[in-house]
Amino acid sequence: MLIRTPVARRVASGRHPSRAGITLLEAVLAIGVMTVAVGLFSSMVVSTSRQRSSNHEYPVASEAVRTLLEGMRNQEFAQVFAQYNDNPQDDPGGPGSAPGHRFAIEGLDPLPTSPDGFVAEVFFPTFVPVGETVQLREDVQEASLGMPRDLSGDSIIDAEDHADDYVLLPVRVEVDWSGRYGARHLEIYTMLTEFRK
Amino acid sequence: MTAMELVLALALLAIIALKASMVLTSANEAQQQDSAIMALEDQARRALDQIAYAVMGSDRDSLIPDPESPIFSTSLRYSISLGVEDGEVVWDDPEEIGLSLDESQVIWRKNPGTAEELRVAWCNVVRPFLEGEIPNGTDDNGNGIVDENGLSFVVERDAVTIRLSVQRPGPQNQPISETVSTMVTVRN
Question: N or C: which end of chain B has fewer CB within 10 A?
Answer without folding.
Answer: N
